[in-house]
Structure of Putative membrane protein insertion efficiency factor:
Amino acid sequence: MTPLAQILALPVRAYRLFLSPWLGNGCRFQPTCSAYALEALERHGAAKGGYLAVHRICRCHPWGGHGYDPVPGADPEFDQSTRR
């Protein structure tokens, strides 16, 4: 993970450590939004990974999507099946 991506991951890790246990498991997606953000930052770096994380969090609302939504590149079979 790049140094900038590590800095961007700090608030996500703090959320997972301090807030997530109190809020419970309410994420509509699999993997959870925080796990998605950390994997996106690790896999794609600060700029693209940060964009993917923010885009995913913005979709996490009652009228948004739900279900399996991996980071692009994490599941090639899923990526290929969604392009069709």
